[in-house]
From TrEMBL:
Protein name: AAA+ ATPase domain-containing protein
Chain positions covered by the region annotation Disordered: 73-120
CDD domains, per the entry: RecA-like_protease
Family: Belongs to the AAA ATPase family.
Amino acid sequence: MLEDGTFKEILEDRYHQYRSKADTLRDQGEYEAAAKYYRKCAGVMRDIAEKESSDRMAKKRLELVENLSSAAEKLENAGERDQEPARAGDSNPSGAPSAGGGGSGGGSSAGPDSTDENETVDAEAYLSEVPETDFGDVGGMSDLKQTLRDKVIDPLERSELYEKYNVSVVNGILLYGPPGTGKTYITEALAGELGYNFINATPDEITSSLVGEASKNVAELFEVARANQPCMVFIDEIDALAGKRSGGAQKTQSERQMVNQFLQELTDIQGEDVIVVAATNLLEEVDDAIRRSGRFDERIEVPPPDETARKAILRVHLREKPVLTEAINWNEVAEKTEGFVASDMELLATEAAYEAIDEVDSVDDIQPIAQGHIDSAIDEIEPSGPAA
Ligand SMILES: Nc1ncnc2c1ncn2[C@@H]1O[C@H](COP(=O)(O)OP(=O)(O)O)[C@@H](O)[C@H]1O
Ligand SMILES: [Mg+2]
């Protein structure tokens, strides 16, 4: 038997993968498929609860199981009626269970995900050291990596040279592409590649869980960034920052202030070792003032992975698992995974491992992951990308 701790980690990993899959499907309006994944989340969370040594934690986990199941139910009903599920609660969009149970497992990461609602967070909490991943962990996507080398890494590393030619070095980049294609992952790897500290905040966090008003939160985030140079500030889902979805053309005073503060910060960091990477699934939804500011003229598409990338991404996620590499028909895997985005390929690695684990009785009897396991796993997974 694997030790409980390790097993719990595997389960938590799996939970996160199912969860992001479920959230993505829900956002795409694929309610039935989303419901299926919320059910899977609930199942895994129930297993995690069983491994919990503290009653209090176990109870919290089981509450989340309830939440997940009722989210699944709502979505199933919505699916049948083929309409958007009723928005449940105020702060909690579209029947999604509230965040929680995630990440906070071993009390390891003090990230925003692990805080209770309404709890205030210090901007420092969003800061992490140089990420451990780099481009070596990014499977495929060679064009994208080359673009980032040419447009970001090289200018930063040889800034004097660029200055001599009076070419300004970018410090704002906008990544766009469908969910699960690796925007967050690649940005982290980019920070790792550059050796930059990393701040990761979403507009939701900027507007709600940090202390004080949104514009002050923005100022505070950048203050932390400046104090921790070289630093990359990653704003995920920037379309939600005073974007069209949040309140249409009518911006509140406080939203305007926040956007202005943000643009001011982008100006102020010129010449400092702070760069801002923003990501969005919805380029058209990004606030006009931000789009036209000239600060994000460097726009880089993160496309769904092609066949080569799909193979490479799967290899990355199988790297630390026992696999019969030579016996796998990678080309066939690539063909069968048409429509899979990067996060689907990661899920595939986990599911294939589970298929193999099911056949194993003890650690003395490890069976490597083989073609059959991968094939069954592929059949289980609903591709996130557009159908082939
Ligand atoms: N090029 C890649 N190589 C290996 N894994 C990747 C790659 N791109 C994404 N992933 C995996 O897919 C998951 C989802 O990617 P993510 O960056 O969250 O997507 P996005 O931010 O575009 O929605 C990540 O957890 C990561 O493990
Ligand atoms: Mg992301």
